[in-house]
Automatic annotation (TrEMBL):
Protein name listed in UniProt: prolyl oligopeptidase
Keyword RNA-binding part of the UniProt annotation: no
Assigned EC number: 3.4.21.26
Organism listed in the record: Niabella pedocola
Signal peptide: 1-18
Length: 702
């Protein structure tokens, strides 16, 4: 890149909100040739997050944004109300390891939840790990936790400032004493214990310090760490020198007989390999499930047969038994057949299987024995999301959680033998949740597909076409959007808004067919679904286009960027968060290469034209009046690097014509979202709601 001669910034001079002046952003003559198509990229220099010019640009943008937000008369009232609503005890479901029950708890406004333990759930718990003590700013978070079978040793992973990089530490659980063992440069993985002697893990080579948050991650490897030794002495268990862009993750069956290697080339599809550790003659991994065109995962070992959850010849998934000695697909035996509902996962506890299905995006749990005989449907309180159906084979009970858009998380004790669910803990907060109503509606997308949507609002809502609405969506990577309670979203409803969650194609709500209908060359379906949802709400008199906001993060940030560039007339407010906004270059940074199985790649003549047609950064047009836009990102986001948001903001500010503000909010010491401290979460939520409400013409209700 040539040397930059950076122009001085024009800082904010505001007589009114409508007279925003944005920083002048330097442009460069950068052009790429994609199969004969010339594509300009004048803001390429913003991809260098370490340069002085980029840092100066970030500071100037934040000054403009802060000045605008501070001018919203009720911004501080919103923050105060959010702090009040947030300030209640939040508990995770207890889980048993050794003689102790462990659970997470946040007293209310603690930056990170604390891990407690107790021998008796009616007794006084003690602190086991408090991540708040690991950083004065609260930016260190637990990103993984793994105990030995007997619960005497614990390996826990810590990430800092929102980065995906993590460090693994080892603790003697009995004495809460840290051992000398420490593992660096792990990402998207944890520790898989083998007895009490050591554990398996995945890691990358040590990256360059300057580019560790942006450089493409390649050649992940699998190691075995023996306790009491240094990481340099760890045994290399698996590597693939021929395929630098593959993920390798390992795990053990509960009886620790089989070591399972998951090999993926991205976020969809993968192979399964195994080692029978009881067979001293097997030194290498053997293939269990071949190819990358299906999704499969090992559930457990059943007498030498491996139970596997797979979508091979079953778009809604099924459970099969595979004999490792005869793994050919024609030898598979069906244990749980494919159902009408999409199977999301299978847990084990007490020698039983717990299959989690989605019925129109709401949880449905069925208990089976290991031979696939149905024992019972587990009765849930209503339309919502339930999770946590897993424990050790010898356990008789476990604890699971249930929540909905209008119901804060409640914890239930489940008796495996009787099937009885007993309320263990109910969440108490400073909000009248009885005033909240959730309904599920269905609408037709552009191609006639029937798509569900959840609407949450206060009782007594009038469908007069004048209600403020915020639509949230994701639509990708086989991830479903299911009902769940959020204090932040409940605040918007409390203020008179409608919170809408759209179950877009690309997710797993209706199995792999639903996923495939929103990926690769079908990605436009996702955007059409979101646009159709908005048009439905307007047609049904819930709202009008001047009262409509759209929001999404990561792949959902791409969603917002795409719909606001395709239909700028339809939305009043757009909030693209940590979004994938440059669809021609995402694969060149950190783990972006793993998304090509979902999106395709601009390096392909097949996918380039399609990606170019919807890439938000490349589809901004000069002279268009875009919605009031608040882009959010973090300076330590090493999953979707902040350059996506930087470049999109720069071009949006250049091209946009009209009174709506188009701003970017760049958080420091923050990443993609995981592990973000509570104080930063509340500050960001206050800014987003202040921006949204102000531009939707809402007044703050005391």
């Amino acid at each position: 890149m040539k040397k930059l001669f950076y122009l001085p910034f024009v800082l904010l001079t505001m007589k009114t909100m409508a007279q925003l002046q944005y920083p002048v952003t330097q442009k460069e003559a950068v052009t790429d040739d994609y199969f004969g198509t010339k594509v300009t990229d004048p803001y390429r220099w913003l991809e260098d997050d370490n340069s002085a010019a980029t840092k100066a640009w970030v500071q100037a943008q934040n000054k403009v944004t802060d000045a605008y937000l501070s001018g919203i008369p009720y911004r501080e009232k919103i923050k105060s109300r959010l702090e009040s609503l947030w300030n209640y005890p939040k508990f995770g479901a207890p889980f048993k390891k050794g003689p102790y029950y462990y659970f997470y708890k946040n007293d209310g406004l603690q930056n990170q939840a604390v891990l407690y333990r107790t021998r008796d759930l009616n007794g006084v718990p003690e602190v086991f790990i408090d991540p708040n003590t690991l950083s004065s700013e609260g930016i260190a978070a637990l990103s993984g936790l793994s105990f030995t079978k007997d619960g005497t040793l614990c390996a826990y992973a810590v990430s800092k400032a929102g980065s995906d990089w993590s460090e693994i530490f080892v603790m003697n659980a009995a004495t809460k004493t840290l051992l000398t063992d420490k593992i660096n440069w792990t990402k998207f993985g944890g520790a898989a214990w083998k007895g009490n002697e050591g554990f398996y893990y995945s890691a990358y080579d040590e990256p360059d310090e300057k580019s560790k948050l942006s450089k493409k991650n390649e050649f992940q490897k699998v190691f075995y760490h023996r306790l009491g030794t240094s990481q340099k002495e760890d045994m290399l268990v698996y590597q693939d020198k021929e395929h630098p862009l593959r993920y390798f993750r390992v795990g053990l069956t509960e009886d620790q007989r089989f070591l399972i290697l998951n090999v993926t080339e991205g976020t969809s599809g993968g192979e399964l390999w195994y080692r029978d550790l009881s067979n001293t003659g097997q030194q290498d991994f053997s293939l269990l499930v071949k190819g990358f065109d299906t999704e499969s995962s090992v559930i457990e070992n059943k007498g030498g047969l491996l139970l596997v959850n797979t979508n091979y010849k079953a778009p809604n998934y099924r459970v099969v038994a595979i004999d490792p000695q005869q793994p050919a697909r024609e030898n598979w035996k069906t244990v749980i057949p494919e159902q009408r509902e999409a199977l999301q996962g299978v847990g084990t506890a007490g020698g039983h299987l717990f299959a989690s299905y989605l019925k129109d995006a709401s949880s449905k749990i069925i208990e089976y024995d290991f031979d696939g005989r149905k024992i019972r449907d587990i009765e849930l309180p209503g339309i919502g999301t339930a999770g946590g159906f897993g424990a050790d084979r010898e356990d008789k009970t476990f604890y699971y959680t249930y929540s909905s858009f209008a119901t804060p998380a409640a914890i239930y004790q489940y008796d495996i033998v009787s099937g009885a669910s007993t309320l263990y803990r109910k969440t108490e907060l400073r909000l009248k949740t009885d005033d909240l109503v959730t309904e599920q509606v269905f609408f037709k997308s552009k191609d006639g597909a029937r798509v569900p949507m959840f609407l949450t609002y206060k009782k007594g809502l009038k469908k007069d076409g004048n209600n403020p609405v915020l639509l949230y969506g994701y639509g990708g990577f086989n991830i479903p959007m299911t009902p769940g309670f959020s204090v932040s979203n409940a605040f918007f409803v409390e203020q008179g808004g409608i919170y809408a969650v759209v179950n877009l194609r690309g997710g797993s709500e209706y199995g792999e067919a639903w996923h495939k209908a929103g990926m690769l060359l079908n990605k436009q379906n996702v955007f059409n679904d979101f646009i159709a949802a908005t048009e439905f709400l307007i047609a049904e008199k819930y709202t009008n286009k001047n009262k409509t906001a759209v929001r999404g993060g990561s792949n959902g940030g791409l969603l917002v960027g795409a719909v606001m560039t395709q239909r700028p007339d339809l939305f009043k407010v757009a909030i693209p968060q940590v979004g994938v906004l440059d669809m021609l270059r995402f694969q060149k940074f950190t783990v972006g290469w793993g998304w090509t199985v979902e999106y395709g790649s601009a390096d392909s003549a097949t996918y380039f034209p399609y990606l170019y047609r919807y890439s938000p950064y490349h589809n901004l047009k000069k002279g268009v009046s875009y919605p009031a836009t608040l882009i959010t990102t973090g300076d330590h986001d090493d999953r979707v690097v902040p350059a996506h948001s930087f470049k999109f903001a720069a071009r949006l500010q250049e091209y946009h014509k009209g009174p709506n503000p188009v701003l970017i909010r760049i958080e420091t010491n923050a990443g993609h979202g995981a592990g973000k401290p509570t104080n930063k979460v509340i500050e960001e939520a206050a800014d987003i709601w202040a921006f949204t409400m102000y531009n939707l013409g809402m007044k703050f209700k005391e």
